[in-house]
Amino acid sequence: MNDKTTFSSGALSKTTIYILLTVGSLLMMLPFVWMLISSFMSQHELTSVNPRIFWPSVFRFDNYTEAMRVAPFDRYFFNSFIVAILGTIGELITTILAAYAFSHMKFWGRDVVFAILLGTMMVPSEVMLIPNFITISNLGWVDTYMALIVPWLASVFSIFLLRQFFLGIPIQLSYAAKVDGCSDFKFLWYVMVPLAKPALITITLLTTIASWNAFLWPLIVTNAHEMRTVPVGLAMFRGEAGSFYGLLMAASVLAVLPIFILYLIMQKHIVAAISRSGIKG
Fold first, then answer.
1. 38, 200 in Cβ contact below 8 A?
2. Are 225 and 74 in contact (CB under 8 A)?
3. Is residue 192 within a helix (H) or strand (E), and if so which, with residue range?
4. Backbone torsion region of residue 100, taken as left when φ is above 0, otherwise alpha when ψ lies between -120 and 50, otherwise beta
5. Band (280; pLDDT cuts 50, 70, 90)
6. Range 17-32 burial, b when 16+ CB lie within 10 A, else e
């Protein structure tokens, strides 16, 4: 009887958890579903006070073509792709080198420097906006790709994540490689990097998403139309489109779609890397 009671209570608790997770997922998805549906609706349907209008009578695909005509989203997408790709590549390079140094190389003050780097994560990014902008302005980089990319070529969080992953790789591999005459760089490139593929994919994905969604910094360092990224262009599009909510929703779908597809393809690597990196601390 006790075993049956335990089994029943366990099954009930699991069912409750699944129901709560399902409801939470649906609530999280609701704004995105409404954004997608609204992008196909007419202005009259979106501004109607009739609560029964929640589905377009006719799917208006011209909202997307009109949104592309009103604002140069092709240029915005190009800028975002450039910033995301080059920024991600640059951050991967600095992250791999720094994480290897802090995990497998011994030098004076290593732990102190790493602790100081971790301490910078407690400083809000908004605090650094003015000093960073002054630096960028003095370098003459305003309205350039350099301003959008260079300040974010290193990430303490990415270094910490990859360092934790590197610490889970046996140090004996390094000793064996050095006995065979392998240099630190060759060991890093041919052994550590392939083993750390899940963590690197996670860093790539998180960095790309952050670069694509960045709004405040691109807004500050860009003034020209042709240098706007997608989030900034979308915010400016609100004034250009006025109260035409169908166009706003269509433009929002276009902005979200690329990064949403990327996340769906790569999401399993996030779980794998974060679960492994959290084993050692």
1. no
2. no
3. none
4. alpha
5. very low
6. eeeeeeeeeeeeeeee
Residue spans of the domains in the chain: they are: 2-38, 62-277
Quick one: how far is CA 121 from the chain centroid? 17
- C-alpha of 234 from chain center: 18
Please give the distance of CA 114 from its chain centroid, rounded to a whole number.
Answer: 24
Distance CA 245, CA 18 (A): 35
H or E element: which one contains 155?
Answer: none
Dig out the tokens for 92 from the structure. 């991967």
Q: How far is CA 11 from CA 1, 8, 22, in A?
A: 15, 5, 16
pLDDT of residue 240 exceeding 80, the answer is: no
170: which 2 tokens?
Answer: 């046996």
Structure tokens at 247: 């166009």
Q: What is the rounded average pLDDT of the residues 239-245?
A: 66
CA dist list (Å): 124 to 172, 245, 267: 39, 34, 27
Residues 66-82, mean pLDDT to the nearest whole number = 87
Secondary structure (DSSP) of 86-119:
HHHHHHHHHHHHHHHHHHH---TTHHHHHHHHHH
Residue with tokens 């779609």: 257
Mean pLDDT throughout 130-159? 91
The class that CATH gives domain 62-277 is: mainly alpha
Determine which helix (DSSP H) or strand (DSSP E) holds 123, and give its type and residue range. Answer: none
Question: Length of the chain in residues, anyone?
Answer: 281
